[in-house]
Structures are given as C-alpha cells and as structure tokens.
C-alpha cells in the first residue's frame, strides 16, 4: 500500500498545480477566437462611437445621433415592429401549436416538419415570396382583378415587414411551445375533462400554466430576433421602414459615417443584450422550476 | 327497476388498424364494484376509457344510469376518474386540485371549501391542503387523486391501475384504504382496472377477465376463482397449473352429449399421467375437445412416498413456504406450494404428487 | 384530447388550415413556384420554364453558390470544432470560469449580424490586422455568428450526457486523451452533427454581416439574390433562392444521415 502511495504523494503538489491550470489552458484557444473576433471588435465599436470624425473624444457624436429625428424614428419603428410582430407570432404560434399538439389530424406530422424546416430557412426568403404574393403585380392583386397596381398595397410599408416577420418567426415560437405541450400528460387533460371542465377551462387552467415558461422565454427570444431582423427589412426595401440594424447598415456602408453607425450599433446591442439577459433569466428560473416538477413527476412515470 | 350504473353494449374501439376492444358487453350495477382484470394489452384500460369518454367507440353504445352518453364529451358525464399516475395538476395545491371539478361546476365558494375539507378528511389528507403535488409521496398523491375524483360525488368511480405505481407495502395500505372507502360509499359504483389478481379478489364484487381485446369471462369473484369456465381465467386468477387430462367418464347432470357415466356428485372422471381423478366440469364440454385440469399450486400435495410419480426440478424458498417445480411422468410440469420441504428428496430425484378431487375442468384452449 | 366534439374539432382544423396556409405555407410555396415561372401575370404562372434555374446554376450565380457552400462548410466546421472544444474544456474548469465562458460564447446570439459586420469593419480595416477586402473577413463574421450555436448544442448535449461513462472508462485505466477520443467524442457525435446542421443552415442564409463585409471576389448567394432582386430580376432571384435551399438541404440531409448512423451505434 505504502509502496504505491509514496510516488503519488511525491508528485502531488506539482500534479495539483497542473490540475488547476490545465482546464484554463485548454480553454484558451476557443476563448482567443471569441475575444479576438467578437469582444475586441465590439469594444472598438464602443470606442469609435466616442471619437468624432475630426478626432475629438467625447459624447459629441452621441449627442448628435441620439437627438437626430432619423434615429428616434428608427428606434420607435424598431420597437413597434418587434413588439407587434412578437405579439402576432405568440398568438398565432400558440394557436397553431395547440391544434397540432392536442387535436392532431392526419398530416399533422408533415406540418410539424414544415415548421421545423422554416427554422433552417433564411428570412429574406419570406420577403421575396411576399413580393409574389402581395406585391403590386402579385397573386393577391391578380386574384382581386386589379392586375398591376391593384388594390392590395401594404407590402412596401411597415405592415408588409410586420406580416413577413410574423410568418418567419411564428415557427420559432411554435417549437418551444410544442415541446412544452408535449410535457403535459394527456391524462391530465382527460382527468380535467372528467371532472367537468370544458375545453376552454382546461386550456386556461391546466395547459397554459404548464406552457408558460416556454411561452415567456420564446417571447423574449422572438422580441430579440425581430428587433435585430435585417434580411426582411432589406429585401422588402420599404423607404419609410428604417430599423436600427438598417440604420447601422446605411450609416456604415452607404454613407461611411462610422462613428454614427457605431452609436446606433451600441444602442442596438444594449437593447438586445438586455432582452437576451431577460430571456436567459426566464429560461433558467422558470425552466429549472419546471424541470424540478418534471423530475418529481418522472419518478411516477413508467415510460 | 332502476337502470344499471354503467352499461356497455357491443362496444368496439379501434386505434388506427389495431382493435383495442372488441364487442364488449358489460353491466355494472349501482354501488357494485367490478374489476376489469387482464394482462397488458387486453383492452381493460380501453374499456374504462370508453366509459369515461376519453376514447370514442367505433361501434356500440355506452349508457350511464340508462342514458346513452356515447357521444357525450367527458365533461358532461360526471364520473370520477383516477388514472395510473394520478395526473395531479402540478401547478395547483392539493386543495385546488380537489376543488377543480367543483369550480368547473361553478359551485359557490363556501360549499367548495366545505366539500374539499370533507373529502380530504375522508382520504386522510386534511393536513396537506397547502402542499403541491411534487411535495407528496406516491401514496399521498394517490389519496389526493381519489379525493379529487370523489369531490364531485360521482355515481361511478373509475380507477385505472391505481396502485401500480406504488411499492408493495404501500399497495397493501392503499388496498385497505380503498376497501374502507367502499364501505363508506356504498352507493358509489366502482370500476377497477388491474392486472393484479390479488387486488381484484380483494376489492371486487364481480370480476371481468379480459384478454386480447375481448371479454373472456365475467362473474362473481368467488365463482370465477373457484369455478373458472375458461382456461385463461383459471391461470390468470389464482395462477392455476393447467394439466392436460383425458376425459374418461364425462358429464354431470344437465349437460348433454354424454356418453359415459353420470356421477351422482356431478364430478367427471379424468385420467392424468395414468391415474384417475375426479374433476368438476365448470361448463359444457363438447365431446371430443381436449380438456385441462386447473390445479392451484397450494392444493398440490407432495410427499416422498405416495401419489403420482414425478421428478422434483427445483425449489424456491418464498419466506412463507416453498414453491416446487415438478415434472410428471407424462412430461407435463406443475408448480406446488408447500409449507415445508423436510423429508423430501433432493432436486432431481423422484417424489409423489397428489391432486385433490373436485378441481375445475375446463376446455383446453390455445394455451394460457 | 382537448376538444371532444367533432364539430368544434372540424372548426378548429379549418381555422388552423386557413391560418397556416395563408401565413406560412403560401409564402413558402411562392418561391418554389416563382423559380419555375416563365411569365406570371395572373393568380398562377401562365407558363413554366427551367430557364431561371439554369441561369441560377451558371455564371455569376454559380460562382456565388460555390462561395456560399465553401463559406458554410468552413464556418460550420470551425464553429463546431471551436464550440465543442470550448464546451469540453469548460466542463473541467471551475464553476465561475465556466459561467463566464458560457455567457461570452452565447453572447453573439444577442448581437445583430449587422453590428457583427460593422465591428469587424472597425477592427480589421487597418494594419496590423488588415482583413477588410479579403474573403477572410467574411469567414470570420460567419464563424462569430454561428459559433454560439455550435457551442450551445454541444454544451447542452454534455449536460445530458451520463458522466458515469467517462468515469468507468477512466476506472478501466484509460488515459484522459483516450477517454476523450474513444468515449466522450463518439458519444457526442449526434450533437456535433446537429450543431453542424444548425451552423450550416444559418451560415448559408446569412445576409446582415456579409453585406457589410463582402469583397468583390467573395460574394455569397444571399448577397447575389439581393442584387438580383434590386435589379428587378425577381424570377432569377427566386431560382437562386431555390438553389440555396437545395444546397442547404443536401448539407442537412448528409449531416442527418451521419447523425442517424451515429445514433444507431
């Protein structure tokens, strides 16, 4: 015993030292990638926003940009669009997920696959297809007999962008909500009905409370993604729909006003990181709560 | 004459191409306890779900107190249902779980309060009103599930394998509890789905044995146990040995097609491994069909010296006694439960087996 | 079951069909239809042609498609390697370090792609790090954007993985390197493939950062599609998008097949 233990004891201090530092050393390469290509450039953006084109350091650029009407308009539009689109996605996504999960029909699986597929699509695809559906020479106008320049003319405005975002991001709400619905044992719905509860009561009192964490975190994520959406806005190309990312793009590579672009970028990042923090918090706090319940219930579940 | 609490008329349930229940006819009287007994996949749970309205019968009718409810959704049937894993609502406290059905009926708050207190006391859970389901043990969750079902004062309580998620000791305790509830609620009919014959025997007035989506046999519990008419019933209810025998002298009084002696005591004579025994046909035995003798392990006697010659294949100690695996000279195997193995030869050696007269004689089917 | 009567179920399905059809299915169908439309003035195209698709796989469009495929493959491979590396290394790091790593690696999700593009422009437009104007800056941008997904998927898989397996392997005398190569990584294969799928799909469809950064010789397909749309060549744009979706699908199916094989073992 001692014969084996002795050499271990002799190398122990150095070994312990190595144990402590090895994981950190292993972490260095991937962290260098993130720090070098993400954190460092982002820090430079913040610095750039504080330096005017003439080289003065200060809040001059900030003052100028933040008070400009185009910025306030873009900010307001971004918030309105993302809140509106998210509301639409959550309502529509919850309804569609409810039907898919609790009143499945032949072909429901195919629909689920389509929903999954949308997640792998680029968002500009929707904007492009909207041109054919609702554009001035689109299907809807043709169907309404207008020909070119028909009666439907909302595409090249905020409503077009809003509807496109609802179309694209609804699947992003549906997936977590469907997963949450799948966690509700069908026996609970059966028992609730046997106790005399009508479908509406079962939905409100049994199903939705279970899906609430998924809905909350899905809502945050959708708010975040719609706020940062660029492809749809770019492709719809509506003159009066300038969002924050669009403004960064314009300032950055159309007018080459880097300091102003950086100010807008910083505002955009702060907003979306705040939303992201809320999302992570909701996910962690409500998610673990539920997971605890799930584990407690799983003990009884033979499946 | 009042209508039975539950009546199923030719109910079939299909899930896609599989038939989960085939033409079930069943009646549950008022205040009666009926056990639906069978192995998994026998259709017993499906039958219960058809009564509760969770599945829609492909054909046939479901009647509750004489009213056809085949097309009524579960929330209009007013039955109490307790499912296997209780399905307590995890986000509601115990009291809210129990009050759920009462609130769905828009009962005034004060009455809800009273009723909840009453049923929780009935199942011994009065001190747990404020708890969440996840803070309860399996047995406590079970009690809450029963209280929730009873709160709406249903004329029929449906229980789907209510004890299967509990460990052995707790199961005994809950069984006693259910028996107590039976006594306290004599007017509430109970339909109890189980695969455990012990539960069925302890709780039910009548047992319906099911297999492969069909009803095999239904009758009063004692009759099914002592005089099963089907081979499957004999083996499933009481785990009888089924020994293929030869009918020597058939037919007690009343049965036709007899070509042998009718014995005064209604017993037929059969030959098992060369020896003759007297057995009791529990139903008509059409001439020429193979028959089997149902012998319960505890009725088999094993001695070193006398009886049918057999070989001892193995011995298991079961605490209260021993289970012996035996092989008769005709190759058929049987199990025997004995209290002692003193004086018996060692495993692999020969012993004598004796089987009492009056064991049930049933048509030998496709095997149990 | 939530709805019990046949009538309300039918009503519900009708509502589902209308909403799903109008809001989600119809737009998806449009691009496919437009890709093969010859002329389209009515409700449905008057005639069909494969000409746009042929255009979309020749000349500039083909070059763009190849650029997109290369970008997607390189970025997703780098993201999976980097993400899996970080996830595995973070496991054995002290808890506070792990939390920091987790936050930093997830953070790019919360930053708009346009801002990622802008930040790279700001950082790498002058020496000593002059990447602007080269294809590398596009690749770096794609890597930054898909990295959180590579890390996230692998990290989640590690959370679910059974730590006992690695312990058992170590107890049998396997060195840490051997445990990693023969036990932990093989078990992670499905997650690695899922991470690669996600990264590939995202990279193939990326516009925000790319449009800020692309040099003339490294124009990805989405950027070309935008150029085509801008010029009014909407049918060619649809055909190019169809090609993009087709290429993405081939990649995802290949990775899916690999995942299926890994899961079978």
Automatic annotation (TrEMBL), chain A:
Keyword tags: Cell membrane, Membrane, Transmembrane, Transmembrane helix, Transport
Topological type in the membrane: Multi-pass membrane protein
Subcellular location: Cell membrane
Positions of the ABC transmembrane type-1 domain: 75-279
CDD domains: TM_PBP2
Single GO biological process annotation from the record: transmembrane transport
Transmembrane spans: 24-46, 79-102, 114-134, 154-174, 211-238, 258-278
Cellular-component GO terms for this entry: plasma membrane
Family listed: Belongs to the binding-protein-dependent transport system permease family. CysTW subfamily.
Protein name stated in the entry: 2-aminoethylphosphonate transport system permease protein
Organism, as annotated: Streptoalloteichus hindustanus
Automatic annotation (TrEMBL), chain B:
Gene3D superfamilies: 2.40.50.100, P-loop containing nucleotide triphosphate hydrolases
Keyword Nucleotide-binding found: yes
Domain of life: Bacteria
Pfam families: ABC_tran (PF00005), TOBE_2 (PF08402)
UniProt-listed Enzyme Commission number(s): 7.6.2.9
Domain named ABC transporter: residues: 6-237
UniProt KW keywords: ATP-binding, Nucleotide-binding, Transport
Molecular function terms, GO-annotated: ABC-type quaternary ammonium compound transporting activity; ATP binding; ATP hydrolysis activity
A Gene Ontology term for the protein's cellular component: ATP-binding cassette (ABC) transporter complex
Protein name: ABC-type quaternary amine transporter
Organism per entry: Streptoalloteichus hindustanus
UniProtKB/TrEMBL annotation, chain C:
Domain ABC transmembrane type-1: 65-254
Record protein name field: 2-aminoethylphosphonate transport system permease protein
One BP term from GO: transmembrane transport
Keyword set, alphabetical order: Cell inner membrane, Cell membrane, Membrane, Transmembrane, Transmembrane helix, Transport
Transmembrane segments: 61-88, 100-124, 136-158, 187-214, 234-258
Main location group: membrane
Pfam families: BPD_transp_1
Subcellular location: Cell inner membrane; Cell membrane
Topology within the bilayer: Multi-pass membrane protein
Gene Ontology CC: one annotated term: plasma membrane
UniProt keyword Nucleotidyltransferase present: no
Family that this chain belongs to: Belongs to the binding-protein-dependent transport system permease family.
């Amino acid at each position: 015993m001692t014969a084996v233990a002795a050499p271990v004891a002799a190398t122990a201090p150095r070994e312990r030292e190595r144990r402590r530092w090895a994981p950190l050393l292993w972490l260095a390469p991937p962290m260098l990638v993130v720090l070098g290509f993400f954190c460092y450039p982002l820090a430079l953006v913040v610095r750039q926003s504080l330096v005017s084109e003439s080289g003065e350091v200060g809040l001059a650029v900030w003052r100028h940009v933040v008070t400009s009407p185009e910025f306030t308009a873009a900010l307001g539009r971004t918030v309105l669009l993302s809140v509106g689109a998210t509301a639409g996605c959550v309502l529509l996504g919850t309804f569609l997920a409810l039907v898919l999960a609790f009143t499945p029909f032949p072909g429901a699986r195919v629909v689920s696959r389509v929903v999954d597929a949308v997640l792998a699509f680029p968002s500009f695809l929707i904007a492009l297809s909207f041109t054919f559906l609702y554009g001035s020479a689109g299907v809807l106008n043709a169907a309404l007999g207008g020909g070119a320049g028909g009666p439907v003319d909302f595409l090249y405005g905020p409503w077009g962008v809003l509807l496109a975002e609802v179309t694209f991001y609804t699947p992003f709400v549906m997936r977590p909500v469907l997963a949450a619905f799948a966690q509700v044992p069908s026996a609970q719905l059966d028992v609730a009905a046997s106790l005399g509860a009508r479908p509406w009561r079962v939905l409100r009192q049994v199903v939705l409370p279970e899906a609430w964490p998924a809905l909350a975190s899905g809502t945050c994520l959708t708010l975040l993604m719609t706020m940062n959406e660029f492809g749809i806005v770019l492709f719809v190309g509506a003159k009066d729909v300038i969002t924050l990312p669009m403004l960064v793009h314009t300032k950055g590579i159309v007018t080459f006003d880097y300091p102003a672009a950086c100010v807008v970028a910083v505002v955009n990042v702060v907003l979306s990181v705040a939303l992201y923090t809320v999302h992570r918090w909701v996910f962690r706090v409500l998610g673990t709560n539920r997971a605890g319940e799930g584990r407690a219930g799983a003990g009884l579940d033979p499946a | 004459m009042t209508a039975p609490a539950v009546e199923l008329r030719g109910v079939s349930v299909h899930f896609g191409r599989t038939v989960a229940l085939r033409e079930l006819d069943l009646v549950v009287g008022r205040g009666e306890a009926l056990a639906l007994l069978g192995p998994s996949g026998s259709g017993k749970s499906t039958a219960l779900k058809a009564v509760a309205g969770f599945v829609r019968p492909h054909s046939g009718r479901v009647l509750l107190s004489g009213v056809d409810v085949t097309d009524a959704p579960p929330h209009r049937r007013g039955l109490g249902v307790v499912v296997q894993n209780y399905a307590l609502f995890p986000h509601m406290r115990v009291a809210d779980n129990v009050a759920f059905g009462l609130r769905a009926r828009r009962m005034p708050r004060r009455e809800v309060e009273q009723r909840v207190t009453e049923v929780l006391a009935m199942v011994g859970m009065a001190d747990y009103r404020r708890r969440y389901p996840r803070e309860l043990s399996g047995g406590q969750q079970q009690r809450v599930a029963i209280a929730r079902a009873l709160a709406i004062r249903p004329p029929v309580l449906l229980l789907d394998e209510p004890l299967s998620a509990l460990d052995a000791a707790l199961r005994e305790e809950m069984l006693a509890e259910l028996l107590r509830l039976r006594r306290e609620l004599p007017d509430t009919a109970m339909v109890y789905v189980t695969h455990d014959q012990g539960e069925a025997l302890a709780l039910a007035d009548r047992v319906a044995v099911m297999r492969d989506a069909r009803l095999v046999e239904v009758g009063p519990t004692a009759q099914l146990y002592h005089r099963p008419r089907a081979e499957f019933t004999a083996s499933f209810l009481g785990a009888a040995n089924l020994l293929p025998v030869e009918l020597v002298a058939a037919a007690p009084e009343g049965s036709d097609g007899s070509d042998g002696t009718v014995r005064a005591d209604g017993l037929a004579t059969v030959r098992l491994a060369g020896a003759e025994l007297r057995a009791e046909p529990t139903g008509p035995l059409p001439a020429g069909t193979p028959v089997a003798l149902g012998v319960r392990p505890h009725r088999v006697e094993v001695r070193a010296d006398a009886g049918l010659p057999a070989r001892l294949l193995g011995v298991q100690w079961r605490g209260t006694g021993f289970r012996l695996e035996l092989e008769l000279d005709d190759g058929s195997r049987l199990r025997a439960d004995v209290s002692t193995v003193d004086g018996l030869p060692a495993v692999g050696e020969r012993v004598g087996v004796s089987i009492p007269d009056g064991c049930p004689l049933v048509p030998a089917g496709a095997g149990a | 079951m939530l709805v019990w009567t046949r009538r309300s179920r039918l009503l519900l399905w009708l509502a589902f069909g209308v909403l799903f059809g109008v809001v989600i299915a119809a737009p998806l169908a449009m691009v496919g239809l437009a890709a093969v439309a010859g002329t389209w003035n009515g409700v449905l195209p008057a005639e069909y042609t494969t000409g746009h698709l042929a255009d979309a796989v020749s000349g500039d469009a083909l070059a763009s498609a190849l650029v997109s495929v290369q970008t997607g493959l390189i970025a997703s491979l780098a993201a999976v390697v980097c993400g899996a590396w970080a996830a595995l290394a973070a496991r054995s790091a002290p808890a506070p370090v792990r939390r920091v790593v987790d936050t930093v690696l997830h953070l790019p999700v919360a930053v708009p792609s346009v801002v990622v593009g802008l930040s790279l422009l700001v950082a790498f437009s002058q020496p000593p790090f002059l990447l602007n104007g080269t294809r590398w800056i596009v690749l770096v941008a794609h890597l930054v954007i898909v990295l959180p997904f590579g890390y996230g998927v692998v990290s989640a898989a590690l959370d679910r993985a059974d730590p006992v397996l690695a312990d058992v392997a170590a107890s049998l005398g396997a060195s840490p390197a051997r445990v990693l190569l023969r036990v932990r990584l093989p078990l992670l294969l499905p997650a690695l493939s899922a991470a690669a799928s996600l990264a590939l799909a995202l990279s193939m469809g990326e516009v925000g950062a790319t449009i800020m950064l692309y040099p003339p010789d490294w124009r990805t397909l989405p950027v070309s599609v935008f150029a085509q749309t801008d010029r009014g060549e909407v049918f060619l744009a649809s055909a190019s998008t169809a090609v993009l979706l087709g290429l993405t699908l081939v990649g995802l199916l290949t990775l899916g097949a690999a995942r299926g094989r890994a899961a079978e073992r």
